[in-house]
Amino acid sequence: MNKMVICCAFLMVSFLVSAEDGSKLWLRGKAVSAEVAAKRQIVIHSESIVVGLASKELEQYWAGSSVELIVDKKLKKLKDGYTISSSGRGLTICAGEEIGLLYGAYHLLRLQQEGKDLQRIAIEEIPDYDVRMLNHWDNLDGSIERGYAGQSLWKWEDLPRTISPRYAQYARANASIGINATVLNNVNASPQILHSDYLVKVKALADIFRKYGIRVYLSINFSSPKILDGLENSDPSNKEVQRWWKSKVKEIYTLIPDFGGFLVKANSEGQPGPQDYGRTHADGANMLADALKPYNGLVMWRAFVYSPTKEDRAKQAYLEFMPLDGQFRDNVIIQIKNGPVDFQPREPFTPLFGAMRQTAGMVEFQITQEYLGFSNHLVYLAPLFKETLDSDTYADGSGSTVAKITDGTLRPAYKTAIAGVANIGEDENWTGHHFAQANWYAFGRLAWNHALSSEQIAEEWLKQTFTDEQQFLKPMIHMMMTSREAAVNYMMPLGLHHIFAFDHHYGPEPWGDRQGGRPDWMPWYYHNANSAGLGFDRSATGSNAVSQYFPPLDRIYGDLETCPENLLLWFHQVPWSHKMKNGHTMWEELCYKYDEGVQQVRQFQKVWDGLESHVDSQRFAAVQSKLRIQAQDAIWWKDACLLYFQTFSKQPIPYDIERPIHELEDLKKIKLNMSYHN
Amino acid sequence: MNKMVICCAFLMVSFLVSAEDGSKLWLRGKAVSAEVAAKRQIVIHSESIVVGLASKELEQYWAGSSVELIVDKKLKKLKDGYTISSSGRGLTICAGEEIGLLYGAYHLLRLQQEGKDLQRIAIEEIPDYDVRMLNHWDNLDGSIERGYAGQSLWKWEDLPRTISPRYAQYARANASIGINATVLNNVNASPQILHSDYLVKVKALADIFRKYGIRVYLSINFSSPKILDGLENSDPSNKEVQRWWKSKVKEIYTLIPDFGGFLVKANSEGQPGPQDYGRTHADGANMLADALKPYNGLVMWRAFVYSPTKEDRAKQAYLEFMPLDGQFRDNVIIQIKNGPVDFQPREPFTPLFGAMRQTAGMVEFQITQEYLGFSNHLVYLAPLFKETLDSDTYADGSGSTVAKITDGTLRPAYKTAIAGVANIGEDENWTGHHFAQANWYAFGRLAWNHALSSEQIAEEWLKQTFTDEQQFLKPMIHMMMTSREAAVNYMMPLGLHHIFAFDHHYGPEPWGDRQGGRPDWMPWYYHNANSAGLGFDRSATGSNAVSQYFPPLDRIYGDLETCPENLLLWFHQVPWSHKMKNGHTMWEELCYKYDEGVQQVRQFQKVWDGLESHVDSQRFAAVQSKLRIQAQDAIWWKDACLLYFQTFSKQPIPYDIERPIHELEDLKKIKLNMSYHN
C-alpha cells in the first residue's frame, strides 16, 4: 500500500515537471551536468549581487568554454551594455556597469539556445534607450485594466510578508531581454499606492527586482495630497502641496534608494490634474520633477489627453502640449502613445513626435492586446512597434524617425525612455496566449535595439521558446510576420479605427451608439459611414489633422491620391466608388481586405496544425484552441463590418468572396460578458 | 387627415399585394385580360364541380387557344390521367375520369408558365401510382411532429364552422401536381380523431378537398375501441372489437362517402397494436381491411417496427413482416419507409421491397426534413426519392426496381400507392424554407411519374416559382441537384447514419448517450467508432443484414471491396486505414467528405447571392438568411464529427482541409431548445 502511494506521488511529480504550461517563457536552457561544468570556469572579480547572479546563470546553464566577467567603470560609452569577446582561453564579458554583465550572460545563453556558433565572438551591445520600461495597469484589488492573463501578479494583501516566487521569475525574464524599469500600478491610479502601508510592499518588490537591475516606478494620482492627507487641494502652485510631494518622495527614497519615478495620467478621461486648478500640464509635471530631481527620479507625463469637444480627438494631444514646449524640467519625459487615438490595429504615428523640439518625448506602446483580440488572437506586435519607430517624422528633415527622435540621436535628453503596457498576469504562461509571450519579448528586444528586424526577433524567440527545427521556424516566422496585418485586415483595414464594441473593445460594433454618450467614444465618430462614403476627413477640408505633420507628410496624407492606402480612411472620407491602385473600388477593396484577414487566419490554423509533431502536446492544443477562436472572431468581424457598411454602400459583396454566415441583426444583439476583463 | 389615412391604407394594401411571401407556391400564373379571354373559348360538357373547376382555372389563367374538355368513360387505360392534343381549332383535353380534366388543365397552365411551345401538343399522361398521398403528422392540439413550418394547417377547434381559405389553397396546390390523398393526422394517433365530434370536422375538410380530387384518410390508434367506447380490449379477434370498427367505418362513410381509409402505426415505438393481444400485424390489418372493404377503403399498415432487442434494428421490419407474407387482405398495403432505419440522409433501400411477393407494398418518403436540417437547410429531395425508386432489388431479376415493385408493373395490386410525410404548416410560405416547396412539388410529380428526372422537376419548379431566365436556372438547377449530396457530406458521408442529437435530430451528437436509454436510440449503436475503425458491421461477420437482400446485392453489399463507398459504413465496420478507391484512407476520405460538404454550402451562398437581381427582395433575403444558417450548421457538423471521430482515429485531419473552429467539448455542451418542434 505504501509502495503504491509513493509510486503515485512520483508519477504526479514527473507529470508536473514535464507539463509544458509555458511558465518557462523563452528561458529554457538546460542545466549543465557536473562533468560539463568541471571543464570550464566562470570567473568574476566582484562580490556584487548582480555580478553573482550573472555568474550563477552561467554556472548553471552555460555549456561552452570558460567565461570571465569584468566590470570596467571607464567603459561609459557602453552605458549599461557590454562587450563579449573570445580568445584562446575562453570568453570575456566586459561592462561599464555591473548590470551589463548580467545582460551579457543572458546574451551568451541566448546564443547557446539558438544553436549559434560560439567559437569566435566579437559583440558590442549598447542599448538604444536608457529606460526600458513596462507599464502595469494593475489595480490594488488585483484586477488589471486591459489585462487578459488573469489577475495581477502583485499580491498586495500578502506583501511584504509573503514573497511569491514569481516576482523573481518575472524580474529574471525582464532582465534576460534588457527591461530595466517597471511601473507597478495602473495609470488610473489609486492614491493608496503612496500610503506608507503600500510603500513597504512596493519596497519588498523593489528589493527583489534590484538584483535584476530593475527599478520600480509608480503611477500616481494627482489628487493624492488632498485625498491621502486631507490637504485643501492638490494645486501644484500650493506650497503645502509641493511640500507634501517632497516629503512623500523622500519617504519613498528612504525605502527604495533606486526608485525610478512617477508615471502620471492627469486631466485625461476623468483623472484629476493641474488643470483642475487652472494650471498647465507643465506646472503639474514640474512640481513632481522638482521633488524627484534630488534623487535623479523621473516624471513620465502622459500625453493621452482628449476632451469631448468639437475638435478631432486625434488632434488634441498636439494642441494641448505644443504650447507648453520648452516649459518642462529636464527630468520630465512626455509619454506619448504611438498613435494619436488609442492603440488601434493601425494608426499613423502621433504628430507630437518631433514637433516638441525642447521637450523630451518617449513612445508608449501597448503590449497587452486591448484592441487586438485580447489573449485570444495570435498577433505578433514587433511589426507594429517597428512601424512607429521607423516612421519618418521629417521633423529635422528626411530620416527623422520616431526612433531617432526619442532615442537621443536627434534630441539629446537627460534620459531616453520607451514604455510598453504589459500583458502579464498570474496565468501559468504569464500572458494568456503562448504567442503573446513573444510580444513581451519583442518589446524588450526593441527597447534595447530598435534596429533589430521583426523577423530576427521572431526567430530568436521561436528558437528559444519552441524549437530550432527549420521546418517549424520557416512557416512560423511567416505566420508571426503576417499576423498583425491579418488582424488589421479582419478588424479595420484601410485605416478604419475604433469601431470596437463599447468598453471592452473585443468584438466589432461599427453600429455602436449610446444615448448621451461622448461622441468620441462612439464608432460612428470614427468611421463616418454614409451613402457617400466612409472614413474620417482629416484633410484640409476636414479636421485638418494632417497639418500637424511636417512637410511633406501633411501633403502626402492630405491628398486622397498620395495618402498611403493602409491609412486612407484615417485621413479621408472616401467615396465608395473611389478607385484604388489595384483597380478595385474602395467598397470592393474593403470587402477583399476583410476576407483576406479571414483567409489568413484559416491559413494560420493549417500551418499550426501541420506542425503538431514539432510542439509539445500541451502548448500545441492551447494554441490550436486559440486559433479556432481567432478564426471564429475573424468571421464575426468580417460579417459584422461588411454587413453594416453595406447598409451604406448599397453594393453587393463581390461574389468571389466567402459569404457572410451571420445576420447583421443577430450580431447587433451580441453582448459579451467581459466582467472578468477590466 | 382623412386623406392621409386613405393614403396609408392604400400603401399598405399595395405593399401586401407586392409582398413576395411565397404563399403562392408554384402557382403564379397571371389572370388573363378580358381581351385575351374573349379570343378563345373553354368548352365543357359536364356540370360536375371538378370539371367546372378545370374550366374555371383555364378561363382565369389560360392565354392560349380554345380548349375543349371531354370525359370519355371508355378511356380506362388512362386511369385518372389524360391526353392533350392540338388541332386547327385549338386544344382538347380528354380523360376517363372527371379529375383527369383538372389535372390536364394544370398541365396546360404549367406548360404556359414554363414558356413551352404550345402549338403542337400530343400528350398522354397516366399516373404511375393509384394513391398519391401526403401523410400529415399533425396532432389535434395543432402541433406537428417533425413539423418545421409552424403549427398545423388544420384548425380543429374552429372546424367545422370556420373554414380557412388555406384549405382550398392546399387542395388546389396538391391537385396541380396530382396528389389525390391526404392523411390528416399523426401516425402516433390520438383515438379522439375517430370521435363523432371530430368526424364532422374531418367531413368539412373532405368536402373541400373532394372538389380537387383528394380523398381524406385518417391515422388510427389501434386501442380506439377500448379508449373511445370502453370496450374490454381492442383485440382484433374480439368480435365486439370487430363490430366496433365496422360500425365506426360505417359512420365515417356516411359522412364522407369517398373516405380513403386508415393509416396504422401499430406495435411500434410504444403504440398499441395486435401484438398486445398475441395477434399478428396481419390479424390487426385484416380486421380493419374487412371493415373498410365494402366501401373500397384501404389500410396502409406501416412496417416501421423495431424493438430494443439484440437484433440489428435495420433487420427487424423484414424479420417481423416476412413470415406474414400472403396473410394480408388485398386492400391492405404495407407502407415501408424508403430505408431500413429512419429517413436518414442516405440509406440503402429497405430489403422488404420485393421480398414480400404476395403482399402489396408502398414507399413512405419523408418530405419534411427531420434529418436534413429542418426548414433551415436547402436540400432538394428528388434525388433521394429517385435513389430509392430506381434501386434495383433484383427480386425478380435485374431491373426489379423499387418503383416497378410498388407501381404494379411487377406485382399487380388491388391499389398501388406512395406516401410522403408532409412538410406543410401554417407558415405564410407553407414549408418554412422557400426551397422546401420544391420537395412537396417533387414528391407529387414523382408520385405521378417516377420516370421524371430530378433535373426536369427542378427546372419545372424553378421556372414556375421564380423565373425562366437561363442565367438563373442553370446555376440553381445545379445547386438543387447537388444539395442532397452536400447535406450527406457535411452530416453523414460514406454511409454513416443516425448520429443526430437526441430527440430533435437537428444537430450532430455522435457522442450521444443516455443512461439507461435504448441502445438503438444512441448514436454509438450506429457508428461503432473505436480504435480499430468506424461503421456498422452488417456483413456475414456482423449482423448479416446483407442476407436480407437478393443476390447479387447480398454479396455486393457484404464485401468491403465491392460495397458502394457511399454505403460503406452502413454495411461494414471499416478500419481507419482502409484504402478507398481514390487512394485516401477511410479516415482521410471521411475528412474530405465533411469538408466538401462545407465548401458546397459556401458555394451555394455565392451562387445565390450572385442571383440577387433575378429574385424578389423578400424571398432573396429569406433564402440568403437560411443559407447562412446552413453554412454555420455545416461547419458545426463537420467540426463535431471530425473532432469526435478523431478521438478514435488518433490521426490528423489532412492539413489542406479548412480547420475546425470549434472545440469538441464546447460542441458537446450545446443543447438546443427545440420545444417548438415536436
Quick overview:
The structure is a homodimer of 678-residue chains. With 678 residues, chain A is α/β, with parallel strands linked by helices. Chain A is 38% helix and 10% strand.
What would you note in describing this structure?
The structure is a homodimer of 678-residue chains. Chain A has 678 residues and is an alpha/beta fold. Chain A folds into 3 domains: 23-125, Chitobiase/beta-hexosaminidase domain 2-like (Chitobiase, domain 2, 2-Layer Sandwich); 131-451, Glycosidases (TIM Barrel); 488-536 and 573-668, Alpha-glucuronidase, C-terminal domain (Alpha-d-glucuronidase, C-terminal Domain). Helix content of chain A is 38%, strand content 10%. Chain A has helices at residues 2-18, 34-38, 49-61, 98-114, 165-176, 196-210, 224-229, 239-255, 281-292, 313-321, 382-389, 402-406, 437-448, 454-465, 470-491, 523-527, 553-558, 568-571, 586-610, 617-649, 664-669; strands spanning 42-43, 67-71, 82-87, 90-95, 122-125, 131-135, 181-183, 215-220, 261-264, 298-302, 332-337, 360-366, 417-421, 533-534, 574-575. In chain A, the strands form 3 sheets. Chain A has an 8-stranded parallel barrel with strand order 6-7-8-9-10-11-12-13. The first copy, chain A, has a 5-stranded mixed β-sheet with strand order 1-2-4-3-5. The first copy, chain A, is globular. The A-B interface holds A 602, 605-606, 609-610, 612, 625, 627-629, 631-632, 635, 652-653, 655-656, 658-663 and B 602, 605-606, 609-610, 612, 625, 627-628, 631-632, 635, 652-653, 655-656, 658-663. Chains A, B: InterPro entries: A-glucoronidase_C_sf, GH, Glyco_hydro_67_aGlcAse, Glyco_hydro_67_C, Glyco_hydro_67_cat, Hex-like_dom2. Chains A, B: Residues 1-19 form the signal peptide. Chains A, B: Residues 113-430 form the Glycosyl hydrolase family 67 catalytic domain. Chains A, B: Residues 431-656 form the Glycosyl hydrolase family 67 C-terminal domain.
